[in-house]
Every structure is written in C-alpha cells, then in structure tokens.
Amino acid sequence: MEKRKRINGPLVKTKRSRLELSDLPMEILHSIVSRLPIREAVRTSILSKHWKRVWCCRAKLKFTFRSLVYKKRSGIPRFSISEQVFIQMVDAILKQHSGIGVEKMKVLFSPLNNDHAEHIDRWVQFAVASKTKQLTFDFEAQIPKKESYSFPFQIFNAANGSHLQSLKLGSVSLQYPSNIKFLLNLKKLELVDVNIDNDNLELMLSACNVLEFFGISGCKILTSLHIPRHSKHLKGLKVSLCPLLQVIELNSGLITLEYEGSLIPLGPPSTLRNICIKSLDIHSSIAYIFTELASTLPCLEKLTLKCPELKRTTLPNKTLKFLYLRHLRLELIFVSRRKSADVLDLAKFLDAAPLMEELEVHMWMDYKLERYRKHHGELRNLPLHPHSHLKMVYITGFYGQKDQLELALHVLRVSTALEAMKIDPRPVVGCITQDLGMEDGLCFIDGYKIARKYLHKADGRGVVDVVKVSRDVKNIWPCNDIHPYWLSAATTGLNIS
C-alpha cells in the first residue's frame, strides 16, 4: 500500500516496507526449517547467507532414502542410489552443518555394512562431538548376508557420552568394552537384529543406571535376558523374535512388557500394569489368560493378546478375576477348518474383569464363512450379569456369524454404562499376504447386514455404530474394503524409509 509523505517540500510517494520471511526471529526460522526434509532444508542455503546459517543449525538430522532422494509419485526405486552416493550425500551435509545443537540424528540405509566402517565411524564421531541426545544407526538385515558394521563403542567415554539419552542400533555387531562406562544418562535403548551375546548384553545394561526403556528384537544368539536388579528406573521392556531365548528375568519395577515369540517362563513382577503378548504357541486365548496370567498379574490394567484361536477350552465355574483390568484387546486368528473355537466364550471376560472400561475384539477367520440365518438355530442367551463400567466396545472382522452375533448382543445387553459400540466387518488382523477376492467382499457385506438387522434392533440407546462397506464387490479392488489399519501395516512391512 502506498502513502504520501512530505519531506521538506512537495509530497512524494513512499512504499510501506514488507515483512520478509527472513526477518522473523531465528528461533522461528529454525522451527520452520526443522519441518522440511533434509534435502529441502539444505536447498534453503542458496537463498542468502542468512538462510545458510539457519539450516546449518538444524537440530534434527535424518538420513534415509526417503529424506534424501524419495519424492512422492516420482517413480524412483529405493535402490536407485548406491552406497557410495548415499555416503557422499551424508558427508556433504555434515560437512556444512555447524555441529552444534543436534538433538536427534538418524541414519537408516540397508546396503551399509562393515565395508563402509570408515565412513560410518566418522558419522558416529560427528554425533559424539555435536552432543547428540537421540542417536539411531539402523542398516537392516541384508540378503545375501554381509558382515555387519561393528559399532565403535571405543569412541565414547564418560565425558562425551553423557549427553546421549536415546540409542537405537539395527543390524550391527556389538562388542561392548568392559572397561568403559559411558551410557550414564541413557534412558532409552533399542537393539534390532544385533550380534550380541548374553554376557555383553548384561554388561551393557549394567552400565545404564537410569535406563527407562529397553527393546531387543531379532537377536539370534541371545539365550537369556537378565535385567540387573539395580535398574530401578526401567519401566518398559520389549522383546521380539529372539529364537533361542529361553528365559527372561525381570526386575521388580517394570510396568510395561511387550513380548513376541515362543512362550517362555516370564515370571512377571506384581508391579506389571500393561502387557502385550504375541505367540503362535497359544491355542486358546481364554485358557492362557485364566490359567497363566490371572495368578501372576493381579494388578494388570491393560492386556493385549495376539494369538491363533484353535480350540475351545472348558474352564471351572469359579475363575480368578482381574480386579484392576481396564482395557482388554484381543487379536485372534481363527484358522481351524472345523471351527472348534466359540466366539461367545469371550463373554467370560466380562465377569472376570468387573471394572473393565474398554473392550476390543479383532478377528480373522480363515475358513468358509456363513452369516447367521434362522435355520442355524435360535441365538443363545447367556445369564445377564450387569456390567456397570464398560464404556467402549470395538469389534472388527465381524462377518455376521452366529457366535459373533451372540457375543455382540450379549455385550450390548449387559453393559449398562456403554457409550459406544463400533462394529466393523473388515479385519484389522490376519495374514497380510493373504489373497483377497470377491468372496471376501461378500463376507464383509454379510457382516454389515447382520449387524444392521440385529444390533440396531437391540440398541435402545443409540450407541451402536456399524461401519458401512461397499456393495459393489465385483468392480472394486478387494483391498478397498479392507480396514485402513491393515493396509498401513502392509505398507509398513515394505519398510520404505
């Protein structure tokens, strides 16, 4: 906008100064640049010397195929760049960076291995010198297998390692030096597909005095896991797919445990509040929960169980109760062609957890499905014992089968405080690689029709929400009718980073 101004004479036109982006406070500019992919942030340096100073102080450095090269719908394949090109890109960026104020540094590129140790060691030294707080080096497993990069613990010492608070290492070899203690302030440690034995792992954990979370997965030589007794700050533990693991010795302060693999003695402490177990060794969720968990986890508040449901189990009339359980999530895969399991049996959890507030039942049925019809017999009715705390119910993989419908109707009737019941015919669990065809789409439609017909009729409070599915199963790709959660899991499995 123009305005007139008199300067010792006639009026002259002047222009109001405009606010430039570069005029913003440096803190705001740093925040803006930090939200850009690293390749875009580097490009801002060509704008001016001022902008060059902005990106060079970037607090988050993420070096992956996606952040350096990938563009949406560009068609660039993941392995279109060689290890050498990736290394040159990272070196060029680190050379320009100020080396000050790095909060988080992540390097993820699967082709890298011990052949590139000279370059990776240099990146580790940069992280140490810049006092990085969160550090990730993940090179994933390679086929054919090459010698894993040996992480250089010798670079660290008690002084320069004191800034590190989070460390994640993937597909590396670990030989922890016994005479160096540097992980004094480490609060989070994750090891993925690493080469570390029992003694070195125990030694490593013993040096982490304030560790709050530890995760390990894909370790093929680990046979036992002992959490040091002095690890009083450790509240979360995740153990996944360690095939030789035979025993886990937990400390008394643990609150959250996530375990995937063959069933082994856990001996969980009474302090455990949140547990997630995924195992193919469990053939009945009901039997496992009531016989294995109820007596050892009296204070459990949240339970997630992922397992195949292969057989029906008969329980005694009186079973132990989960008096503190608030949230139960079941991810069940029914794969028996004889369908020996009965979904209605899951109603036992309502009596066993009188204070439960949220119930999730996610099902996948890998056999011929048939929605409920009158000739299948009358719907069964269990004794009505009011449940006054259950507020939220979420059921997926609802195909309209008789026992599924009976469970949903029972929960709806006895839950006096129910606020919402969501029924989704589409599955969120199951085999991601399973081929889906028109028959699967028809099963989703069957589930939708049955839920609308029976559950809406029994719903006198307006709490039932049935997710609508497409009826045109002949002209759509089957995955259009799959729950988005499942598709995102399949995409994540590709691990395009």
Automatic annotation (TrEMBL):
<protein>
    <recommendedName>
        <fullName>F-box domain-containing protein</fullName>
    </recommendedName>
</protein>
<dbReference type="Pfam" id="PF00646">
    <property type="entry name" value="F-box"/>
</dbReference>
<dbReference type="Pfam" id="PF23622">
    <property type="entry name" value="LRR_At1g61320_AtMIF1"/>
</dbReference>
<dbReference type="InterPro" id="IPR053781">
    <property type="entry name" value="F-box_AtFBL13-like"/>
</dbReference>
<dbReference type="InterPro" id="IPR055357">
    <property type="entry name" value="LRR_At1g61320_AtMIF1"/>
</dbReference>
<dbReference type="InterPro" id="IPR001810">
    <property type="entry name" value="F-box_dom"/>
</dbReference>
<dbReference type="InterPro" id="IPR053772">
    <property type="entry name" value="At1g61320/At1g61330-like"/>
</dbReference>
<dbReference type="InterPro" id="IPR036047">
    <property type="entry name" value="F-box-like_dom_sf"/>
</dbReference>
<dbReference type="InterPro" id="IPR032675">
    <property type="entry name" value="LRR_dom_sf"/>
</dbReference>
<feature type="domain" description="F-box">
    <location>
        <begin position="18"/>
        <end position="54"/>
    </location>
</feature>
